[in-house]
Amino acid sequence: MNAAAISIQASSPQKADYEVIIIGAGMGGIGMAARLRALDCQDFLILEKAQGAGGTWRDNHYPGSGCDIPSHLYSYSFAQNPSWSRVFSRQPEILAYIEGVVRQHGLQAHIRYGSEVTSATWDEASTRWRVRLAGGDTLSARTLVGAWGQLNRPAIPAFPGAERFRGKSFHSAAWRHDIDLRGARVATVGSGASAVQFVPPVAEAAAQLTLFQRTPNYIVPRLDREYTPEELDSYRQNPQQLQESRDALYWDREHRFAKMRLGSANAEEVRAIAMQHLHSQIQDPELRARLTPDYPVGCKRILVSDDFYAALNRPNVELVTEPIVRIEESGIRAAARLHEADVIIYATGFETQSFLGAGDIVGRRECSLRDTWANGASAYLGMQVPSFPNFFLLYGPNTNLGHNSIISMLEIQIDYVAHGICALRDAPDAALDIEAETLQEYDRWLQQALAGSSWSGSCRSWYKAADGRIVANWPGTVEEYRAMVAQHLPQILQEASQEASP
Ligand code: NAP
Predict the structure, then answer these.
(1) CA 1 vs CA 40, 173, 341, 411, 422: distances in Å
(2) How many Å lie between the centroid of ligand 1 and the Cα of residue 193?
(3) pLDDT by residue (tens digit) across 389-404?
(4) Is residue 193 in contact with ligand 1, taking CB distance under 6 Å?
């Protein structure tokens, strides 16, 4: 059957069984799908709960939203784009890029939008996943790929009195463009990666912006700029030059991985750059002191901004560092003072700890992923969980980075999963699973390797579980991850050829 025919079949409402179902059409799911098409594996479906592709880049359309990794690197290696308008592209351009990949790789017919997965259950008898959707439909697939991401469930802290607030409020990942901030008194809770991007444009529009900061961050200059017409011409005419730009960005970051180790010379270098940035932009010593972190650099995400500090110098911007006591009808009370506001923007991050995205995933012996991860998520190489056969995660536990592009990690995972899928194709009765001991041994190694990393420092961050265990980050370079995944690959291929489902 040719590709076009299968694509039509994939989008047909009658078809209910697939070789692969991917949950989520963000950068992981789309990359996975493009790889499957390239391997001539056409029998797959992406289930996406929203009405469009793009994941975090679809959801985070707040003013100033953009990526703090340069676009030549924050893009797929198989879909390099010579036309990025600037070094650090903004959300509309990134989303347009992802949508372009969907079109160019013929993925549209493989995506079912508005399809929220409520549960996926492993059926031992048929060695298939039964996937239930919110609308009541049930689909099945030999392999399930969880590509739901980690940053898609906005978290709003339960401040006392929040329900009494008479103004408008929303989360940064659900921006209300219908609420006109011009001339308004705006309060923002949170000062992380999202806030530093929208604070400058909001400060310009609002009459007053009150920023509630719980913990200051290390912020280094972004040094963003537009590409010149000459540069764009040369990238378009000479793909090798684009590849060289990408490689240079990648290797520069790889070589500076040492900054992610506590007390390293590279960490000190980054700290000094951040402090110099702060000192050059904030003259008021009292304000500067409140913006100075007291924990090791890299423990929380190192932020990248050219204009956040400058915004704090504006006369209409106030930084509040006293703890929030409660929310009242007319604003936010911190310590004894009420800060009046017409609009509250919660830039308070995401529910990151569970790693659970789509409904409940139930593996062998009715074992649910939610229960399995009740004391913190873990997965072998971030991708496989014992008792969940033919199930792979993308951007799973301990695969996040602090030094390089997450797309490079995703592509390694996509390659591994694609190999697993191909191996299963050659072994129709096999079910790919891993031993619990394999994960335990890996996890012991992982936690040892993470000791002494910057994330292990004394700070609060979404990289850690409640008990302090680091659940988000990979302890090494991307190349080290690539090597470890490559080392395990022959094993899963062999297992697929040998193992018959029990
Ligand atoms: P975040 O980094 O988790 O920041 C949340 C902010 O809310 C922090 O300042 C936090 O303070 C504050 N907060 C949370 N609960 C609070 C409470 N109860 N009281 C007072 N303050 C509270 O969230 P985010 O800024 O949305 O970013 C999340 C992640 O998205 C980033 O780390 C990054 O991975 C990704 N992101 C990436 C980019 C990019 O350019 N690539 C851009 C935006 C976001 P504490 O620091 O004290 O916890």
Answers:
(1) 11, 42, 61, 28, 18
(2) 6
(3) 999 999 999 999 999 9
(4) yes
